[in-house]
Design brief:
The complex is a heterodimer of chains A (about 375) and B (about 130). Chain A has helices spanning about 25-45, 60-75, 95-110, 120-125, 130-135, 140-160, 170-185, 185-190, 215-225, 240-255, 260-270, 275-285, 290-295, 315-325, 360, 370-375, and strands spanning about 15, 25, 55, 85-90, 115-120, 165, 195, 205. Chain A is an alpha/beta fold and about 375 residues long. Chain A folds into two domains: about 25-280, 3-Layer(aba) Sandwich (Rossmann fold); about 300-340, no CATH class. The radius of gyration of chain A is 22 Å and the shape is globular. By secondary structure, chain B is mainly beta. In chain B, a hairpin with a 2-residue loop joins strand 3 and strand 4. At the A-B interface, strand 1, helix 2, helix 9 and helix 10 of A face strand 6 and strand 7 of B. The structure holds zinc ion (2 copies). The site of one zinc ion has 8 residues of chain A, from helix 1. Chain A: One of its GO terms (cellular component) is mitochondrion. Chain A: One of its GO terms (molecular function) is tRNA binding. Chain A: Its main location: cytoplasm.
């Protein structure tokens, strides 16, 4: 059987079948179409403007490693004019994150991008190893999720960026759509397919790989010989997500368009009126400058650490206080929140350093710098 | 047309293969990313239950040449060190594992029915591990 020729250039030997289109294409055409599709996703969604400072959430895994490589490639090729950074969170998981961070450090060298690593230990005084030692393996992902989100924002603020891109791919998003359907979480269902989100915190998060298939990301890393780390988090017990993932892989094996079809279903889901209202209210705050919104009381801050929070205490402060008081389970029950004393905890309790908005956001509404006022 | 070193019969010939693992697959194979193995050039009788009878095997004594489906079974029996359910589902690799034969997506090579040659390199990469 002679080798099949590339369906795009008709010259080189085809080396893979694209899951999206079924086309059999050669290596160079694959690199080109993969990169171009990400570029099209970025430009159609108008994710960036020249001069933007953008952090790439880098875990050392396949998705963020390929994302860093492709972002750098596209920024050079299409003159986006972005200043790119790698931002990594060290959760303090021995044998997992310490190894993956070594990968990120190599990526920093290979891609010549500045790297910022922020650890749970320096921010919260607790590593995930110690948290798991204390609370066991039942709710550890709740802690990790809340802590990581805030750590990313704080890392972004310290880099003075207001935009984080993450490596979430089409398979991840389809999986989240399925999970939200199975949980009946219609409000999240619409939101989880958005390419760019801005939650109650202030920093934008975007997913340039929204339409990139996991298979192609792995193939891209393989053919480019990119250096990535692949081991599952040793504390990750999310069996439900695991089942959703395998279900999705089975669907994809039977019909590769299933991934994109599910994303489109999520996008097209009719969102109820009250959900729309809530989203509209949220959007309003997005078009105000963040500090203006803060001043108007639309965005509230955690009374203890200053992080953006609609409650008196942000989730991380609630969880941290639970840990410090030795009552970690208290903290995940919403009702108990009100009992926590706001503003201070036990005198020897660790608290999170004060959160400051990145200057790029804060400049807009801070009083004019002195030098400018004297005219 | 006589081969340099004639084997006593075809079914005792072996194929030397290079197997590579990535994306966490190596954890199932002694945590080694690269293995050199020799497998029988023909599927030993009785064939594994998965071997679907093809027209060529009308006569039961016709040896079936080793293909990737047989390789996967051979790997399970000989070099897999843990958790078969993370490697196989039914008679083939679990969905989410990419297979490359000599750097070509196995979907272009007939998948499990690809007939192996001496010196082939087969790569197994899991896509299931976090990004
Ligand atoms: Zn081509
Ligand atoms: Zn707080």
């Amino acid at each position: 059987m002679p080798p099949k020729l590339c369906a795009l250039c008709s010259k080189e030997r085809a080396i893979l079948r694209r899951p999206k289109t079924g086309q059999q294409i050669c290596k160079d055409c694959f690199f080109y179409v993969f990169e171009t599709e990400v570029h099209n996703t970025i430009t159609e969604a108008k994710l960036f403007k020249p001069g933007d400072r953008v952090a790439i959430g880098a875990s050392g895994g396949k998705d963020s490693t390929v994302l860093a490589y492709v972002m750098k490639t596209l920024n050079d090729r299409y003159k986006y004019g972005l200043e790119l950074f790698l931002l990594s969170i060290d959760e303090g998981i021995t044998g997992y994150r310490d190894d993956s961070l070594e990968t990120v450090k190599r990526n920093q060298q290979q891609y010549n991008l500045p790297l910022k690593i922020l650890s749970y230990h320096e921010l919260y005084g607790w590593t995930m190893d110690r948290i798991v030692e204390k609370i066991g393996r039942k709710n550890n992902c709740t802690f990790c999720g809340v802590f990581r989100r805030q750590a990313l924002d704080r890392g972004a603020a310290s880099l003075n960026v207001d935009h984080i891109v993450t490596g979430h791919n089409a398979d991840d998003i389809a999986e989240t759509v399925l999970m939200n359907i199975m949980r009946g979480d219609i409000a999240r269902l619409g939101r989880c397919t958005l390419i760019c989100t801005q939650g109650e915190d202030t920093i934008r998060r975007s997913k340039p790989f929204k339409y990139a298939y996991e298979k192609e990301i792995v193939m891209y890393a393989y053919f480019k010989k990119l250096d990535y780390f692949s081991t599952e988090c040793i504390y990750s017990p999310d069996a439900y997500r695991g089942h959703a993932r395998m279900f999705l892989k089975d669907l994809e094996a039977a019909r590769p368009s299933a991934i994109i079809d599910i994303i489109h279903s999520g996008e097209a889901f009719e969102v109820k009126e009250e959900v729309k209202q809530a989203a509209k209210a949220q959007r309003k705050t997005l078009f105000l400058s963040r500090p203006t919104a803060l001043a108007k009381g639309i965005l509230e801050r955690c009374k203890r650490c200053g992080y953006i929070s609609s409650n008196d205490l942000c989730k991380a402060c609630v969880l941290l206080e639970g840990l410090e008081r030795g009552m970690p389970n208290m903290s995940i029950k919403e009702k108990e929140r009100s009992r926590l004393e706001v503003g201070y905890g036990p005198s020897d309790m660790r608290t999170i350093p004060k959160f400051e908005l990145p200057p790029v956001l804060a400049d807009a509404a801070s009083p004019q710098p002195k030098g400018l006022r004297e005219n | 047309m006589t081969p340099p070193t004639p084997p006593e019969n075809t079914s005792s010939k072996t194929l030397n293969l290079k197997l590579e693992f990535g994306g966490g697959m190596e954890l199932l194979f002694s945590n080694k990313r690269s293995h050199r193995v020799s497998i029988p050039a023909h599927v030993p009788a009785p064939p594994p239950p998965t071997a679907s009878a093809s027209p060529a095997t009308d006569r039961p004594d016709t040896p079936r040449p080793s293909d990737v489906n047989y390789l996967i079974h051979w790997m399970k029996e000989n070099i897999l060190t843990e958790r078969v359910e993370l490697f196989m589902e039914g008679d083939t690799v679990r969905p989410g594992i990419l297979v490359m034969i000599n750097d070509v997506d196995w979907e272009l090579e007939g998948e499990g029915e690809y007939v192996l040659k001496d010196g082939d390199e087969v790569v197994f990469i899991s896509t299931l591990h976090g990004g």
